Structure prediction request, 317 residues.
Amino acid sequence: MYTIAIITVAAIVVLSIFFHYVPFVLWLSAKVSGVQISLLQLFLMRIRNVPPHSIVQAMIEAHKAGLSDISRDALEAHYLAGGHVAKVVHALVSASKANIELSFQMATAIDLAGRDVFEAVQMSVNPKVIDTPHVTAVAKDGIQLIAIARVTVRANIKRLVGGAGEDTVLARVGEGIVSSIGSAESHKAVLENPDSISKLVLKTGLDAGTAFEILSIDIADIDIGKNIGAALQIDQANADKNIAQAKAEERRAMAVALEQEMKAKAQEARAAVIQAEADVPKAMAEAFRSGNLGIMDYYRMKNIQADTAMRDNIAKE
Prediction:
């Protein structure tokens, strides 16, 4: 009894290992679906660490959709390269049903580039609407406008590899809105005809070099912001006032410096006069000794000084 149990367990283990490496049920499912694949190939997939279920399911889906150019080796190679086999096959089937030209090589290249190829095909059939963030611009009259645009884009399959993404499209649309509002003579003209922004932006070919094709740009909302022109004028007036005050302060400082210099020169002149007056008695004494000045000359000089002092006092009164 014990031996039978051991044999049973061993048989179960052997069968489990066998059916793991040789998925007979999966092979039978492929045969019923019309997909030609052998048990040896399924066994070798296990050895190469390729999930047979993913490859067989992709082959069955492609065969049922009429895609006969997808081989097992190509699917295995794409899986080993790090690609998403199921998404690639889903995208090829969707593109085939929608009459979109998409080859297996292009689909795998898009998938390996990091883009969702199935989502790209869906976006080609059903365009996507992207809302831009708030775009702020100023018209020529100085009034600020805040706009929000809705951009309808469709994926361009041929430019998905190497093409710019949604962020680039939004940045270009925002740049176009700023340029359009900035070229308007008045903010009122923009508010009256917001579609003029869309027409001007669409003419610039914003989708060049991107992975998308812009179908339409619609202004969803536009609001009035600040009076930037008035604010700039106020700032300029304050700056001019500060400059004028600085220049006036500079002139006042120069005047004060000049006044101090003149006072210093006047003090020097007074000091020179005082020094000269101090030297007068010495000079007179020397003139008396040398005989150049007589006593009568001295008295006449004193009379003149007294007369001058009297005239000064009369003039003060």
User: Anything to note?
Assistant: The first strand starts at residue 128 and ends at 131.
